[in-house]
Amino acid sequence: MNAPLRRVGVVVMILFGLLFANLNWIQAYKADEYRNSDYNGRVQVAEYERRRGNIEAGGTAIATSKETSGKLRYVRTYPGGSKYAHVLGYKPVNLGDVGIERTENEFLAGTSDALIANRIKDMFTGDETGGGNVLLTISKRAQDTAYEQLRNNEKGVSKGAAIAIDPRTGAVQAMVSMPSFDPKPLASHDTNEAAVAYNRYDKDPDRPLTNRALAETLPPGSTFKIVVAAAALENGIGKSTQIPAGSSYTPPTSGSPIRNAHPSICPEAQVSLMEAVTESCNTGFAQLGLKLGADTIKEKARQFGFEQDDLTVGRLGEDGLGVAASRTGSMEAPGGATDPGALAQSSIGQRDVRMTPLEGAMIAGSVANGGSQMRPYLVKQLLAPDRTTSYYTAKPRELRQPVNGQVASDLREMMVSVVENGTGGKAQISGYTVGGKTGTAQSAPNRPDHGWFIGFALDKNGTPVSAVCVMLEEAGSGGSSEAARIGGRIMQAAIADSGGR
């Protein structure tokens, strides 16, 4: 054999070798990925041959499957429409799964290892194997209230979020993001219809597909003062301790004065910490922040949950809906030293401080629960297709303890004063002790301010029954008061749904 033929032979052998190696790579490492791919047509047909399990809230199916006469046997339906969209997500044919539909896909689809006994049993009995059922922690009444109150808010705001949790367990009682979307067309078997719907939502400047309760971070304004007040209480400043205040304060090296929302708010040279929280005294907290220092405030915020990048909300300890990290941001000048102006602004929840509504509810929940912050979760139970066997039941657990019992008690007293004597009056619930903190946060130049409220409700025995955060984007004047009103309504609904205390 001459040299050219030998070279051709070697090249052919190398190509066969590479082909053989690629086939083995696919068989050994990529087979499952290809087999389970959303774009594998045979997998899609097989998946839709099995009735997908229900997702339920308060005993009502909010995601179910309906039989069709088409190539794909079952279609996913969402009886609650846009009301539960950001909790459920959607189950599309040619798009990626989203929400609980994604995180619990294997159990809902019936392919989970946990359901293997059901599949084997059905092989012998000839019964049709269905998917498992997912029961959520959501209170139907609280969810209805959050959705309707946000959508019909008295400020005419089109963007915002509300989330309520049980402070004792971390169970999510309600979670609504506005604007919402209808998941029905996204689950359509007509892939063109689904694609058109997705593109319409995706290109909407109001971002209806974004779950603002978990994924939106905005300056929290005065709600952040609860974090600063906690740091003060831990550093020798009591509820009655006098702190500098005044109608205006200009931090060192800063040419921009910090003023209160109204001239009648803490114009005195000094006020107590209790009064500063109740009246939401910007000048007092700006000076308090400088006294405590950037490191102290950042560390206290971290202890409440700021900077956590890996929090999810679904099953406890399992994959769930992603949560954006809340941040305190930079408080430094060029060169690394603390910038007094930045620290003062950060201490009133402005500058680079950013918070999710979930974090706001967790702060309020921690205060209500004696300083113990519970891990938030959405999935309460996983039931077999025939509902006779439970494969998972949530067992609440503590996530962290940002403050001790005494500090939590002092903060509770201050937040109750905000609702009974200050700016949070519209959150009051008859027969319950309600505490809270309103917040008005600057958004962007020439745009209205954001309105915030974080709060909690205690029954007559002092037991926490609900904690909430409401955020109204660019609500303008009175936005925080409206957020407080909505927060009170949501907690009242959560209480009523659980039969009261």
Report on this model:
A six-stranded mixed beta sheet has the order 3-2-1-4-14-15, with no helix packed on it. Strands 6-5-19-18-17 form a five-stranded antiparallel beta sheet, with helices on both faces. It has helices spanning 3-35, 41-47, 85-88, 100-103, 105-109, 116-125, 140-151, 191-203, 212-215, 225-233, 273-279, 282-292, 294-304, 340-346, 357-368, 405-421, 479-497; strands spanning 55-57, 60-67, 74-77, 133-136, 160-165, 172-178, 242-244, 248-249, 258-259, 270-272, 312-314, 320-322, 373-374, 379-383, 390-393, 398-400, 433-441, 450-458, 464-472. The protein has 17 helices and 19 strands. The protein is of the alpha+beta class and 501 residues long. β18 (450-458) and β19 (464-472) form a beta hairpin. It is globular, with a radius of gyration of 27 Å.
Give a quick summary of the entry.
With 501 residues, this protein is α+β, with helices and mostly antiparallel strands.
Kindly list the characteristics that best describe this protein.
501 residues; alpha+beta; 6-stranded mixed sheet; 5-stranded antiparallel sheet; 17 helices; 19 strands
